[in-house]
Amino acid sequence: MKKKKVKKEIKLPIFGSTRTFGQRAADWTSKWIGSWAFIIFFLFILVAWIYVNLNFLIQYNLGAPWDPYPFILLNLVLSCVAAIQAPIILMSQNRQTQRDRIKSENDYKINKKAEKEIQEIKALLMKRRRK
Fold first, then answer.
1. Does any domain span residue 38?
2. What is the DSSP string of 47-61?
3. Which residues constitute the domain of residue 65?
4. Quick check: 18 and 12 in contact, CB under 8 A?
5. Would you say residue 70 lies in a domain?
């Protein structure tokens, strides 16, 4: 028998709801952008771009290369990539901040409850000692 692949959506116990498509996309994009694979891939693209332009410039000295030396088109592409990446990374960081805030609030409540229980135990021990 073939097993069905069931894609489970992770329920976030802290939020009590599932993540939206945008949240999943932001988390995945942040994870991919922050990986060494992305950095190496992007570095390869940059080096290839510069190599192709410089090689084209040397071979066709009289002709106009498609992106001459200051690489203005490359700068435009890099600026656009940065402009797109920044808000996505910030969205993911904001979600992490929300999770951390809720988690710290829950930790505080647990600590207050534990403190109260310890005080009750201490009071019972003091009461017993007096007898």
1. yes
2. HHHHHHHHHHHHHTS
3. 17-100
4. yes
5. yes
